[in-house]
Amino acid sequence: MAKANTNIDYNTPVITIRGLKKSFEDNHVLRGVDLDLYKGENLVVLGRSGTGKSVLIKIIIGLLKADEGEVTVLGKNMAEISGIELRDLRTRVGFSFQNSALYDSMTVRKNLEFPLVHNQKGLKRQQIDEAVNEVLDAVGLLQTINQMPSELSGGQRKRIGIARTLILKPDIVLYDEPTAGLDPITSIEINELINEVQQRYHTSSVIITHDLTCAKTTGDRIVMLLDGRFERQGTFEEVFDTNDERVKPFYDYNFIK
Known about the structure:
The chain has helices at 53-60, 83-92, 108-119, 125-138, 154-166, 184-201, 212-218, 236-240, 248-255; strands at residues 9-24, 27-39, 42-46, 68-73, 76-77, 93-96, 172-176, 204-209, 221-226, 229-234. It is an alpha/beta fold. The chain has one domain: P-loop containing nucleotide triphosphate hydrolases (Rossmann fold), CATH 3.40.50.300. The chain starts with 8 loop residues before the first strand and ends with a helix.
């Protein structure tokens, strides 16, 4: 069974995308994407490698510009947003990178402190310590606070990356391939953590993945990116209840090996 969440506010979209197109020379990656993310929702974007999933979230966070279409994030039109507004928006939209993006020269504590003191001036030492301890507790890794990233496992680095995303208490979290490169047991733990974050912090999330177990476990709704468009969406069962030859091999690859 796919997950069930009754805390989604379907009257309040936090991301709205209409007619989004993005090309890189002759490579037409996104060919007219429409999407809504609702308050409190975990939305999974499924697709094969190279289909434009990561391009989509880079446009949402303002790292790439759309060629055509409209993208609105927390009420801000990304085509019209000023530099100051974009910096403020990025404190409200957390980006959990595929490689965790930790600073190798900093301890876990310093990695977590960095975005906090950079974005919130004038914090007292006690406030910083409390914030660091809270997010480390949320990801179950208080004991790693003085360790270096090189001393952590791949799963622990993923968790610390998520903790660093959470420390600014974002309204939206964007997860880029959160289970990539992890063993099956650690992947299950990360999937459970994504759901715990949703419940504890009341976040709305876009989860980019090609891992169907991740999609089924974390997604309140799933959209499948095929040939540059969202061709199928709904629950996990609804998305894969099809004879579409573009969809069936994707399912077979994940579950029949």
